[in-house]
Structure formats: structure tokens, C-alpha cells
From TrEMBL, chain A:
The keyword Electron transport applies. This is Ferredoxin. The keyword Membrane does not apply. Signal peptide: none annotated. Ferredoxins are iron-sulfur proteins that transfer electrons in a wide variety of metabolic reactions. GO terms for molecular function: 3 iron, 4 sulfur cluster binding; electron transfer activity; iron ion binding. It comes from Streptomyces resistomycificus. Its cofactor is [3Fe-4S] cluster.
From TrEMBL, chain B:
Belongs to the cytochrome P450 family. Signal peptide: none annotated. The lineage of its organism: Bacteria, Bacillati, Actinomycetota, Actinomycetes, Kitasatosporales. Keywords: Heme, Iron, Metal-binding, Monooxygenase, Oxidoreductase. GO terms for molecular function: heme binding; iron ion binding; monooxygenase activity; oxidoreductase activity, acting on paired donors, with incorporation or reduction of molecular oxygen. This is Cytochrome P450. It holds the Pfam family p450. It comes from Streptomyces resistomycificus.
Length: 66, 404
């Protein structure tokens, strides 16, 4: 699984950080998402899927082939 | 009720059978009439969308604008100011540049900052519960906890003095009214509110503190421009108005929903690790979600349920969408462990609720504190005796009598 985030779409809601803090963070100056780990280990996948599905801005994309 | 022909516009907001029960029309509209003609309190007509996919795509699509003061847009209520949706606040914030404004204010709402705020919110909730215990049972949870907590949290964030909190609460109440107050009353309240906040900004300029207004006075955007004074006042006003009543009513509805069928409360009391998913599920399940979100179209736009012509005012019912069976398994059931839960209670897209991390934190903290302090909490009246306040943008309960 490979994750990409869209900083322009991100509205800084921080849902991803609440759900998967090992994978996502937020910039201190404006709350925009920071991807910590684009290819997280399998144990984190459910959390990453949850983050992508609840992101209000649809700013998190998952590529399942990678 | 169900033999009203669908071609007739429905009166909107839709009537609901009881405070904790959704309008009967939701299910029928989702199935048979996903784009429904409705008549707003002003008498103007709009198109109501109720399906999950439609609501989500309309909210995320910039062609559906928030320009409710554009010529031809439906008015929500029959006053000159048009109330909340095309208030001077909304217009001033638009003038600041929406994306720029979100970035400047967004730093106050990161997950990290929420973690830092949590102990203070918890201490306040504990203090309010102490007050309720002192008062004795039965007690109204709205007066003792749900209403004061969010005002305290926002005033603290803004750096507003304790002595202003009652007045702030009144202003946000008037601003969110749909039909309860007259147009003159709404205008007068908005005027006073603006004057008071202008004073607060001046005070912060002279004596900066560790608060959002002082910080916004000191910083500039990516191009080095500061926020205008009108922008600062509008920001303070928007945060209070957007963050007070919404959260206050959600706290009360949350407790009411969990106690109306006490098995939910007991499940949480036995396993408090469910608090996070429980709060999301309560937000999804809200039967009394208020007006919904209006949008205006300047061009034709296609959504999955059909073509919406240019000049249409669309009202999105997130609460109806949140119970759409095609988006949520057993959508009509409250499942406190549901995950993931991509509900639309905070909207979607670029305008989705800026304060959602704060609202979530407040709801989680309140629930945690109540489960810890008052595991025997129960309704002091039957759930069918609870009454909703009519005439507000936000769906709210009059009072919530509890015992323990
Ligand atoms: C349970 C509580 C809450 C609910 C249900 C809620 C709901 C919403 C919704 C649906 C919107 C979208 C409006 C639109 O798209 O036109 C919104 C916007 C907003 N909310 Fe909340 N909200 C809550 C709490 C808060 C809190 C605590 C704050 C801040 C202290 C806040 C600040 C805002 C702001 C500033 C906006 C405008 C965002 C923008 O235009 O970019 N909200 N809220
Ligand atoms: S959940 Fe989405 S919008 Fe919110 S911070 Fe993460 S990426 Fe950005």
C-alpha cells in the first residue's frame, strides 16, 4: 500500500492524526497534513483505511497495488 | 402525511415526531424523491437533497457556492439581514480569502493542540459536574453542563474575560435563530456583539495574552499580510457562533440518545475505550441535525440523482444522508463501535467544520467525565417528554432533566 496526500485539498481537520498518529502529522503553522510514512507496515493498514475514509476533504489517496 | 403529492413543495424544516426521532419524510425522500422541492420559512423555494452520495458531492463541489445573497438565491428567513447564512461575518471572512483564513486559524485546531487543551476542558467539565451535584437531583444537564462548557472553551481560546461569557452565550443564541427572534432583534444583537469584540481586539493589541486573537494580531499570512481588524472581529464572532450552540446542543443530544436506551450507556460504562467511536456514531445518528447547509448554483450542475439548473438553491440534509442505507450498514441502528464512520455531521470539502477537532474533543471529554463521575446517570423524564427548540439553525433540546 502506498499513501499520497493532497496538501491543497487538506482542510486541516486532523482526523487522520487522531486515527493514525504513526502515519500522519500536521504542520504546526497551519494544520496541513504531513505524511510521516508513505508505506506503513501491515498492522497500520486498518487505521490508514479509516483515516482515508473519514478525511472530510478526501485528501488521502491509497494505492493498493504498491 | 404520506399522501401529500411529491410535486407540492414540502414545508422546510420538516416536522419530526419526537425530539429523538427523525422526520418520517427522510426515508421516503431518499428512496423516492432524492431532489425534493421545499418551501423555506421565508416562503422561497429550494431543492432538498437527502442521499449520502448527493450531499457529499454537493458539499465538496465549489460550483455549489455559499453565495446565499446572490440575486435569485432563496432567502432562508424573512429578514433583511438573512440571518446567519449571509451575515456580515460570512461576507467579511470571504473577503479575507477563505483558504488563507483557514490556514491562519487552522493552527489553533491541530490534533496536537487538542491534546494540550484536553486537561483544561476536563477540569472545567469536572467543575461543572460538581456544580450539578451540589444543585441536587433532578438537574437540567443543559443548564449545568452542555450550555456553559463550550462557551467557556471558546472564550478561553479567544482570551475573552470570564465576565463576558453570559453575553456571548446570548449573542450566539440570537444569531442562530431562524424564526424565534425578529429581524430588528437579530440586527441589534449583531451590532452589540461586533462592538464588544472590537473592544476585545483593541485590548489584545495593547496587552497580548496567550490566546488566538493575540496570536492572529502578531502573525501574517504566507505573503506577509496581517489579518484586517474586521477580519479579526469576524473570526472571533464566527468561532463563537459556530462553536457554541452546535457543541452545546450536541452534548445534550448525545447524553439523551445514550440514556434513552440505557443499554448504550451501560455498554460504554463497561468499556470506556468505545468513547471515540461512540461520539462519531452519535454525530452520525443525530435525529435533530438542524437546518442543514444551503448552497447556490450559478450554472447547471449534474449530481448522481439528476440535473440541477443554474439559479437553484440547494439545501443539503447531512442528518438525512447520515442514515442512508446505501452508505452505512444498518443505518437506522446506533452502533457505538462503528468504524470507519465517514458521517457528514461536520459537512465535507473545503468548508467542512474548522472546529471539528475541538468539538470531538469536547464531546469525548464530557462523555468520559460523566461515565467516570456519574455511572448511574439516567433520564429524569421519559425520552418522549423531551422537547426540541423550534426555530433554530441548530437542532437543540429545551432541557435535559437527569438524575443519578
Ligand atoms: C458538534 C459540534 C459542531 C457541529 C455539528 C458543527 C458543524 C459544522 C458544519 C456542518 C459546518 C459546515 C458549514 C458549511 O459547509 O457551510 C461547520 C463550519 C464551521 N465550524 Fe463547526 N460544528 C461544530 C462545532 C464547531 C466548533 C467547536 C467550532 C470552533 C470553535 C466550529 C467552527 C466552525 C467554523 C469556523 C466553520 C466555518 C468553516 C469554513 O467556512 O471554512 N464548529 N461546522
Ligand atoms: S483528515 Fe484529511 S483534511 Fe484532515 S488533516 Fe488529515 S488529510 Fe487533512
Amino acid at each position: 500500500m502506498r499513501i499520497t496526500v493532497d496538501e491543497v485539498k487538506c482542510c486541516g481537520a486532523g482526523q487522520c492524526v487522531m486515527v493514525a498518529p504513526d502515519v500522519f502529522d500536521q504542520r504546526d503553522e497551519d494544520g496541513v497534513v504531513v505524511l510521516l510514512d508513505a508505506e506503513p507496515p501491515a498492522v497500520l493498514r486498518p487505521a490508514v483505511h479509516e483515516a482515508a475514509s473519514v478525511c472530510p476533504a478526501a485528501a488521502i489517496a491509497l494505492d493498493r497495488r504498491g | 402525511m404520506s399522501d401529500v403529492p411529491i410535486e407540492q413543495p414540502l414545508d422546510y424544516p420538516l416536522p419530526a415526531p419526537a425530539a429523538l426521532e427523525p422526520p418520517a419524510e427522510w426515508a421516503r425522500l431518499r428512496q423516492q424523491c432524492p431532489v425534493a422541492r421545499v418551501k423555506l420559512p421565508s416562503g422561497d423555494e429550494a431543492a432538498l437533497v437527502t442521499r449520502y452520495e448527493d450531499v457529499r458531492s454537493v458539499l465538496a463541489d465549489p460550483r455549489f457556492t455559499r453565495e446565499l445573497n446572490a440575486p435569485g438565491a432563496a432567502r432562508i428567513i424573512d429578514t433583511e439581514s438573512g440571518g446567519l447564512f449571509n451575515s456580515p461575518v460570512a461576507n467579511t471572512l470571504a473577503a479575507e480569502g477563505h483558504a488563507r483564513w483557514r490556514r491562519m486559524v487552522g493552527k489553533w485546531f491541530t490534533a496536537r493542540r487538542m491534546a494540550a487543551l484536553r486537561p483544561g476542558i476536563e477540569a472545567t467539565a469536572d467543575r461543572l459536574v460538581d456544580g450539578m451535584l451540589e444543585h441536587g437531583q433532578p438537574a437540567d444537564l443543559v443548564t449545568h453542563l452542555a450550555f456553559p462548557l463550550p462557551v467557556w472553551v471558546i472564550c478561553d481560546m479567544l482570551g475573552a474575560p470570564e465576565s463576558d461569557r453570559d453575553r456571548f452565550a446570548h449573542w450566539s443564541d440570537v444569531t442562530l435563530s431562524l424564526t424565534e427572534y425578529s429581524g430588528t432583534e437579530i440586527d441589534a444583537a449583531q451590532h452589540e456583539f461586533t462592538a464588544c469584540l472590537t473592544d476585545l481586539v483593541d485590548t489584545k493589541r495593547e496587552q497580548p495574552g496567550d490566546d488566538l486573537l493575540s496570536e492572529l494580531l502578531a502573525v501574517t499570512d504566507a505573503e506577509g499580510r496581517p489579518m484586517s481588524d474586521a477580519g479579526l472581529v469576524a473570526t472571533a464572532q464566527a468561532l463563537l457562533v459556530a462553536g457554541h450552540e452546535t457543541t452545546a446542543s450536541m452534548i445534550a443530544k448525545m447524553v439523551a440518545m445514550l440514556l434513552a436506551d440505557r443499554r448504550h450507556w451501560e455498554r460504554l460504562a463497561a468499556d470506556r475505550t468505545l468513547v471515540r467511536t461512540a461520539v462519531e456514531e452519535i454525530l452520525r445518528f443525530d435525529p435533530n441535525g438542524g437546518f442543514g447547509l444551503p448552497r447556490f448554483l450559478h450554472e447547471d450542475a449534474e449530481i448522481s440523482s439528476g440535473l440541477l439548473p443554474s439559479g437553484t438553491t440547494v439545501v443539503c440534509s447531512m442528518a438525512a444522508a447520515n442514515r442512508d442505507d446505501s452508505a452505512f450498514e444498518s443505518a437506522g441502528e446506533l452502533d457505538l463501535g462503528r468504524s470507519p464512520n465517514p458521517h457528514l455531521a461536520f459537512g465535507a470539502g473545503a468548508h467542512s467544520c474548522l472546529g471539528q477537532p475541538l468539538a470531538r474533543t469536547e464531546l469525548q471529554v464530557v462523555l468520559d467525565v460523566l461515565l467516570r463521575r456519574l455511572p448511574t446517570l439516567d433520564l429524569a423524564v421519559g425520552a418522549d417528554e423531551l422537547r426540541r427548540v423550534e426555530g433554530l439553525v441548530v437542532g437543540r433540546l429545551h432541557e435535559l432533566p437527569v438524575r443519578w
